[in-house]
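Q: What would this complex look like in 3D?
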Amino acid sequence: MSSNAITIPGIRVEGKPWVDTLHEWVTTVDHKRLGILYILSALLFLAIGGIEALIIRIQLIHSHNEFVSPQVFNRMFTMHGTTMIFFVAMPILFGFANYLVPLMIGARDMAFPRLNAFSFWLSFFGALLLYFSLLGGSGLYGAGNAPDVGWWAYAPLGARAFSPGHSSDYWTLALLVSGFGSIGTAINILATVLCMRCPGMKLSRMPLLVWLNFVMAGMVLIAITPLSAAQIMLLIDRYLGGHFFDTQAGGSAVLWMHFFWIFGHPEVYVLVIPAFAFLSEIIPVFSRKPIFGYPVMVAATVAIGLVSTSVWAHHMFTIGMNSYANSFFAITTMAVGIPTGIKIFNWIGTMWGGRIQFKVPMLFCIGFLFQFLIAGLTGIMQAAVPFDWQLSLSYFVVAHFHYVIVGGILFALFGAFYYWYPKMTGRMLNERLGKWHFWLFLIGFHLTFDVMHIPGLLGMPRRIYTYEPGRGWDTLNLIITIGAFIQAIAILVFLANLIISYFKGTEAGNDPWDAWTLEWSTSSPPPAYNFATVPTVASRRPLWDLKHPEDPDSQYE
Amino acid sequence: MRSTTNSINIRVLRELALSALSSVLLPPNALAEPSHLTVTNIFAPQSTPAKSIFDLSIFVLVVTGIIFIVVVTLLVYSISKFRAKSPTHNSEPAQVYGSTQIELAWTIIPILIVVVLFLATARVLHAVQDAPKPASAVEVTVIGHQFWWEYRYPKLGVVTANELHIPVSDPVHPTPTFLQLLSADTDHSFWIPQLAGKTDLIPNHPNSMWMDPQHKGVFVGQCAQYCGTQHAKMLLRVSVDSPEDFAEWVREQQRPAVADERVAVGKRVFETTACMNCHTINGTVANGRFGPDLTHLMSRSTIAAGAALNTPENLSLWIKNPEAIKRGSLMPAMQLSESDLDALVRYLETLR
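A: Here is my prediction, written as structure tokens for the whole assembly.
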């Protein structure tokens, strides 16, 4: 690592026609542009999925509301879940991985740039396929358009007897197509991390973000393949006379549940491990200390990855498994809490004794820590199987997993946006708007999802489009809906910040946060080739070594 | 039925938590009314499985509550104590890379907590799930349909729908009710929060559950597993009767339908239209099984799986335009003339 890592800025051609610019973006194989495309498409679908959530919330604002019909409500929660998991959370995290992993390991691109482009367009067209169901779904007269089987599509609801027309086929094909895209990206990340590291970047010196995305990519391979297999089996059932899940012909509904959750639970960690990755980069920089217990953080991540492949049936405690199976999945689920707890302690350990700067990225990370702690504890409650017999399928579960996905993953993502936006665009996000965004979103989040636990405890099941008065659910649902709208306003502030700062933000320079990983050694935004000369590193914090030659990390490792 | 409660001896904590929780969670109108009609609170158990779950849940809440307090204290302390004093402060703090002892401690302590939680869980799990069925148990087969519940009492020869009747279970001579859970179409889930946790009804996958309420009353709940368009209006009512009332109810239900000459016109409408394709009325030629058994329709207080009260007006509306009460229900609009409809409703009203 030496000063030659500071590169010349990319050459800008002035006055290029917009068609050429568009053409460049569509045909690009540059990992940074693909990363940004992933992120932009995810933001588009975040807005769409958010509107669907608001429709759900308006319908539930009081008992016997008639804002939408039950059919439309069921389509809304199906589309909301499918969109948010497959076309927001995964693409946006893949986008950051795409953008950051090569930069952080001192590489000039991903291992397979064309596969990278192919994977992005597969997942983008997968999303379009899902939304095309709104136009093309009613293959039969009177059949619905958008799918209404739920994002989990439990058999036999997905069978032709219960889902006539083509709406659920679009769901199946969308997941199948984008699933192949995810597998492509996962293979690409694995190959990049294994083969493209710059000189001196041993596995034990990789930034934690790279390590965690490496584990995430491995889990994608484990998780997406059974989902794709199940989708193919479902298509065989629907069009080739198969009976895998066709209960009317002796098929098994439980088989589908197993396939779905063997995907579904590792998927949670596919989403949350990259969120851990953001924290593991942001917290040290804003605490001005290296991550506490790097080897343990890596080991805990790998442990989470391994254990989380054996917890899937905790989504199925109510389906009547025998008590031994229930006990097995209870202990594995509780065991995941151990490495996750270690991570939370290590992040606190990183802050301990530091000089914490409360910039917006750090605020979101602290929000994450608080909320993810609660999400983990409500998770432990549901791992206590008999308790879960009450909690499962109720609004408590909805509150729990939104705590994970919104309170955890989305908060970490917002932190990542504020932290790496300067690198991606060359301009800082506005700090004042960022604080508005943070506090509004925090208030909205807690109003919605803290309160949402309670109707679950009061017996309110999920997925109901209306409810009876007099159960004590009305006021709670009103508060939840108000919170949802506050969150929506916060998201608007965020989007406005992204746009305004792109044009009017202060110049970021190469290294606005005084950070320590390789991406901050190149210009903002980095040139197409990332580094003029391939850097050489001697420790986990190459830029620390550069800035503190008298006390380099390499001395201690 | 041996009680499985008090496996965890935390009475004091329990009392405290109970009063705190009930003040937060009990809806105010439920406190005002003695009736349990609107209570679906999981913290107000009325039957052994629900009570065992309640005890476990309090234990888990206390343990997780302690973890929460400890971790949040550490978090709040570190963010308030170690905030940068001034933004211009340039020197870096001491660079600490980790500590084996501390990391070992916060690995081992969670492992111990997990072991304790697992043992408590496994004990209640086994006690509830593997409870033996006594000879005195009442057996009911519950069949989930889109979007209603069918109940069959195989030993008693009773078939009814949506409103389940079971006897009070006296702890000295327990008569728990054991449900066998089946599904005719999609997945459903049987959930009466005050009586037991939920168990799914899955086609080709028979399940079972049990409950032994010790007090009379009506307990409500609803289908908890998404089963199609009208999942929301697939409500559950369980009437827990005294042994005498239950025996009387069974005797009533075992009789064939009353044949009243004054409503012969309505009966003929029922038997000559599509009604009989889906509904059974014992003692007539109608023996369909797609819809609820109507032999003793008037013994039920609601229609359409709890979507409306069982009044002549609602019954008439339900036959004429089911969409007005329950959109997406599989009951078709019957397209009867006004006079036929009136006669039919008058006939149905005699089915006591």
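A: To summarize the key features: Residues 70-104 of chain A form the longest helix (35 residues). Chain A has one domain: 28-555.
Q: Very helpful, thank you.
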